[in-house]
Amino acid sequence: MTILFNNLRRIFKNKLQVLVIIILPAILLLLVSTSIIATRPILNIGLVDLDKTDYTTMLTNRLALQTNSKEVAQDQILNELFNSKVDYVVVLDKGFTEKLIKGEDAEAKGYYLKDSIQSLPVQYYVDSYFSSAKRIAQASGGDEQRFYEGLKSSNDADLQLDYKVLTGVERQKSYFTLGVFLEIILMTTVMFTTLILTDKGNKTFFRTLTAPVSIRNYMFQNILSFLLVSVIQVTIVFMAFKGLIGIYMGNSLLNMFLLFLTASVLSVSMGVALSSISKSVLQASFAGMFIAFVMGLIGGCLWEHETASVLLNTIGKFTPVYWIMDGVSKLLKDQGLFAISGNILIILLFAMVFFFLGTWKKEDIAK
Amino acid sequence: MLVEVKNLVKRYKDVLAVDNVSLSIEEGEILGLLGPNGAGKTTTINAMIGLTRPDSGEILIFGKNFNNHELEIKRDLGVVPQDIAIFEDLTAYENLCYFGKLYGLKGSLLKERVEEALEFTGLLDRKKQYPKKFSNGMKRRLNIACALVHHPKLIIMDEPTVGIDPQSRNHIIQSIKKLNEMGSTIIYISHYMEEIEEICTRIVIMDQGRVIAKGTKEELKALMTSDERVVVELSSANYTLVDNIKKLSGVKDAYINGTELTVISQKNSKNLNGIIAQVSENSEIISLNVEQPSLETVFLTLTGRSLRD
């Protein structure tokens, strides 16, 4: 394993390479992930709480957790809406909670501008909150203490419901972040797989083969070293995903990790094939970046397949990236390892073809 | 025989790079391989170290067929390639460790051999330095050290002194002599005739893919004893003079290089007076030299061109 360890030594000795392969992707993904969160719309809600009970306070606090909410004076409602200072105003009249507990028809008034899309999620949220409170009130038979106990239990349940609602957003964020990471893997792998070309350039490739080393053994050790570097890259970035970025990875982080390990096998195979075809490191690097970029676009690294046209998806199916991102999508929808086994198989088939192209034994090594 | 190459043929499409080459090397020899660019020297060597598959022929090294015992044979081969083949991103010590390990060295033996090779090439005090900080001569020496670390029985050196200062060249030449004294058999390819003359015990001259002469330097020079060579420096020269000289009895060839006229005649043709008379009619003689055959002359006569053509 002399060639393998020598490669690792050389790759990790190059500080710039380590920065580009491992540290930069983690930082870039952190920035990408943060920027996605910043672009999410923030809802501005106005509250007119004339009832001032424990229940209305609880509602106010919960809305404050998810939106920008503020107290609004009753006579300022229209002014606030017209000047777009708030998207939706909730008015809780005096005696609202009492009516609610007694099972009477208690309705909160909602003010919003007609055709305002922004206000819809708040409407749904407030309606949902009130309807569950009405059910609890019915069950408590008008008993205030039982109502608040039931409400507390329901709040816990609501928290789970909130989590599910957020998962939709998280899923998109995760898909995009993982797509960008896949692009990074494909692009950076070319950096170290061109080590074979570097060795051909400085003639150490030929010299190594004058030692008792077969070309097959040489290629095997090279590929193994590249795989190890790629696995290290994936592992470190996944640790950053989990520890620093905290993005959603579906039910099983391990399954996603496994899918990305398959992606690293593929990227190494692509790099080896490119190194074999290209005449110089520069040529291989440019070709690698270009192919990775195009594959990323066609294969759906930057958008989900559901949102792409049929034509794009059909073309995409001929790229391995499509199958990786399809696997990502399935895992983010909480499907298991079995669901992505077909994807893994297709990706490995692509990798085999690339490995075959890259290690095709030439008649003359010296040529 | 340590090495036997029999009827080696290698063709690249329409070009016959090696044309039925046969040569042999005995243990303890330094065999010089001479030839102009494109003579087939490197292709022959590449076939002997497994970098090129010959179309036909047989290579026996250490008595074993190369095709059947490639890895076994390579364990005792040391190759110094024409191009410097070292890792610029590894220190001199790390470079030697890598190549030593490829030949199965490890532990204290590896350390010992690496230090020994560095000392032999005068690089021990630079072992922790990266080759990018080395002079060309030092890189060449490291290039050699990498081939010696495993104590090979047969060392193949392809122009190991190209592009270096005389001091480094001298160091390398002395090292090769020392290696030979220590028992190594060496195949030495060079464009430098004086190096070949100085260190090689036997010489093979190749041209256009074929072996055109082989033997000791004395044997090769003896091939030329049937010729006499007269070099005349003139004040001016013209091609009519060359034509007239060629008509003289015993003259085999005559040519002009600037104002220098070279006349090659059969031995004992006694035509020097005739040459002087012809030359004096057309020009003034500045100097005249009757040359003894050198290896350069042998090469020039056999191939019709100089080594750097």
Q: Which structural traits does this protein have?
A:
heterodimer, A: 367 residues, mainly alpha, abc type-2 transporter like fold, 4-stranded mixed β-sheet, 15 helices, B: 309 residues, alpha/beta, Rossmann fold, Alpha-Beta Plaits, 6-stranded mixed β-sheet, 35% helix
Which helices and strands appear, and what pairs or packs with what?
The complex is a heterodimer of chains A (367) and B (309).
Chain A lengths: L1 H12 L1 H24 L5 E6 L4 H13 L1 E4 L5 H6 L5 E5 L3 H7 L6 E3 L8 H21 L3 H50 L1 H7 L2 H7 L4 H31 L7 H25 L3 H19 L10 H7 L3 H13 L4 H23 L8
Parallel strand pairs in A: 1-2, 1-3
Antiparallel strand pairs in A: 3-4
Chain B lengths: L2 E10 L2 E11 L4 E5 L6 H8 L7 E6 L2 E2 L4 H5 L2 E4 L11 H11 L4 H14 L15 H13 L5 E5 L7 H16 L3 E5 L3 H7 L2 E6 L2 E6 L1 H7 L3 E8 L4 H8 L4 E7 L2 E7 L5 H11 L2 E7 L3 H9 L6
Parallel strand pairs in B: 3-8, 3-9, 6-7, 7-8
Antiparallel strand pairs in B: 1-2, 1-4, 4-5, 9-10, 11-13, 11-14, 12-13
Helix pairs in contact in B: 3-4, 3-5, 4-5
